[in-house]
Amino acid sequence: MSNIDWQNLSFSYMKTDYNVRCWYRNGKWGELEISSDEHINVHMAATGLHYGQEAFEGLKAFMGKDGKVRLFRVEENARRMYSSAEGIMMAKIPEQLFIDAVIKAVKLNMRFVPPYESGAALYIRPLLFGAGPKIGVSPTDEYLFVVFVMPVGPYFKEGFKPTNMMISRQFDRAAPLGTGKYKVGGNYAASLKAGELAHSKGYAAVLYLDSKEKKYIDECGPANFFGIKNNTYITPDSDSILPSITNKSLIQLAKDMGLKTERRKVPLEELETFEEAGACGTAAVISPIGRIDDIDTGKTYIYSKDGKPGQLSEKLYNKLRAIQYGDEPDPYGWITIVE
Ligand SMILES: *Cc1c(COP(=O)(O)O)cnc(C)c1O
Predict the structure, then answer these.
(1) Do both 185 and 305 map to the same domain?
(2) Does the pTM exceed 0.85?
(3) Which of 147, 220, 222, 291 is at 20 to 30 A from 204, Cα to Cα?
(4) Pocket lining: 219 vs ligand 1, CB cutoff 6 Å
């Protein structure tokens, strides 16, 4: 099959050939299983369905000019899923098992890795949830780990362009001492209403303030926030932010480019002082922010007037993409070649 229109892929579910599964039962992980079934037969009392024992990951595989398929920082995703599992008391997946499952899922679906020229990639979605029956509130002792993949389009179909964000004090994504730092479905359920409101008003996402004091910037729905000023890359520090691997990588690349970097509390007022701002995550690498509207106070923060991204944001974006596709060297060992 190659009737996939690589140029016009979007970020939506597509059936591929196989997925990889692994069960945790009787206190241990089993063998990796290969399935071509898109459905999972789950117990109706599974804790993943009732009490939100569920976590996921998201990463990509890229086809290089040299025909090699590259995974970006897969060990980091393995560690983060381990931390999410710990955070909501699920069975933890050993790092190597996670990596093996991801590699297996990519290899089994090689024909779905988009060609280099398309600028598209293979999106990988690891998923872990409580599958054992339990009706009293406590962690179960049976878990299912699944990895499936699908080709997704370049995030910026019309090029790398700024989008607008909304601030509102009417919603929180995560509680101050809650699960914001884990990649769990519950945080996403909690953000759907705010996200839909933002979309209905024409914004790309909600920029959340810290949920305790509403004084500091937290993150942008499914992406971390950064601002750039005085040759410094600044990103919020908070216990309820999901530690983005893209953000961590951009901090390193910013340093390499001679920028200073700071991870600290970012007061709301500081938005006024940034020369550039962006949201970062696996989906888009960087989504430059053109404008932020605080819909409660009516205040507006503008970072782009001409529809163009900031220069440093663009430089960082190009650098990270070049490493991911293998166009530039990988000095930090971020790439795993799938062979
Ligand atoms: C996944 C995610 C991100 C981005 O993390 P990356 O590792 O860069 O993809 C940011 N915020 C939230 C809430 C997320 O779930």
Answers:
(1) yes
(2) yes
(3) 147
(4) yes
